[in-house]
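Hi support team,

I submitted a single chain yesterday and got back a structure, but I'm not sure I'm reading the token output correctly. Could someone confirm the output below corresponds to the sequence I sent? I've pasted both exactly as they appear in my results page.

Thanks,
R.
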Amino acid sequence: MQTPKGAGFIAAVAILTLTVIQLAVGAFAGLDQFEGKGFGYRLIAYPFLMLIVPFIWWRVSRRKDPDAELPWGAFALIMSPFLVDVSGNTVNLYDSVDWWDNANHFFNWMLLLWGCGLLLRLLWTGPAWSLVLTITGLGAILAVGWELGEWYTFIRRGTELDGAYEDTLSDELLGTLGALLAGLIVGRKART
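Hi R., thanks for writing in. Yes, this is the structure output for that exact sequence:
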């Protein structure tokens, strides 16, 4: 197996490290901006979610070619929304900037699905338009799954009940639109 190298690998390691450090601060420092936001859950879930795709890709690809270089740039894109989310909490943007949550759902889904789309493009044999639809659909499914996770950690315990239904619908819409933009970016360069 090759030693990982390149800007994508460095970016992925930096993103993971900065995310975990902030998660630990959020879970254990007792600061107000982290209160009631599930940072104990996030400290477990985020690193797992950030590493599961690279791990699965590595396991599958090493069977075919043990020396194949991993697509670290795509992995860094997949990991980056977690850093953006945690950093937004660290500097208290969710509670101090009204539009921050909405912007996150759009741009984080764009980043996440851009990375996923780059991975799909490596395997894709169909037309570019179907890749765009697949990336958008995957984004919509992940947006619903994310909102279920938010419900489990925040809403069912009553810490975010005000406007929860409206917020959920707009978050799913913005996530899907971000995924559509990612699909268009990836599909534009895909083979037809």
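A quick pointer for reading it: Residues 8 and 73 are 4 Å apart (CA to CA). Let us know if anything else looks off.

Best,
Support desk
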